[in-house]
Design brief:
The strands form 2 sheets. This protein has a two-stranded parallel sheet with strand order 1-4. The chain is built from 8 helices and 4 strands, in the order αββααβααβααα. By secondary structure, the protein is mostly helical. 20% of the residues are buried.
């Protein structure tokens, strides 16, 4: 409650159509959410909230002529499988967090997620100086620091 989500509809979804938003991924697993509706081999292209903010700021600061005629940039990110996310979660949050995860594939969700690109060409973004997350472990660590750290600060 009180949370907002801003999303850009790049697929022209219509009223009544299913729209999925990947948020928090296995970092949320550490917080107790456990059901994974896709297979461990499923690949996703990800950019952390920190990375997205840094890229948007860096993009805003770019010199217009550096962009040339095209103003389109695929922001840098990482390509990671769900299994690799779970492995990273184990390294950061321990086996207890991983033990909470159950794979409960949902064919409708898998059909949608498998239609997304598992990787993007981000060479242009990188050439312009935008930076991707180092790895999925760093995304989990940032989530823990930002989300759990914020909760602790609010309680104090």
């Amino acid at each position: 409650e009180g949370n907002y989500l801003v999303a850009v509809d790049t697929v022209d979804a219509g009223v009544g159509e299913t729209v999925l938003i990947v948020s928090g991924s296995s970092a949320r697993m550490a917080a107790g959410m456990k059901d994974c509706p896709v297979d461990a081999a499923t690949r996703l292209w990800l950019l952390s909230p920190r990375g997205a903010i840094e890229s948007l700021i860096a993009g805003h600061e770019l010199d217009g002529p550096a962009l040339g005629m095209s103003r389109t940039i695929n922001l840098p990110g990482i390509s990671v499988s769900v299994g690799e996310m779970v492995e990273a979660l184990g390294k950061v949050a321990g086996p207890e967090a991983v033990a909470r995860i159950t794979f409960a594939p949902d064919p409708a969700v898998e059909r949608i997620v498998n239609s997304w690109p598992g990787a993007w060409d981000t060479a242009r973004a990188k050439a312009l100086g935008l930076v991707a997350d180092r790895d999925f472990e760093s995304i989990i660590r940032a989530f823990i620091a930002d989300e759990w750290g914020e909760r602790k600060r609010k309680k104090a």
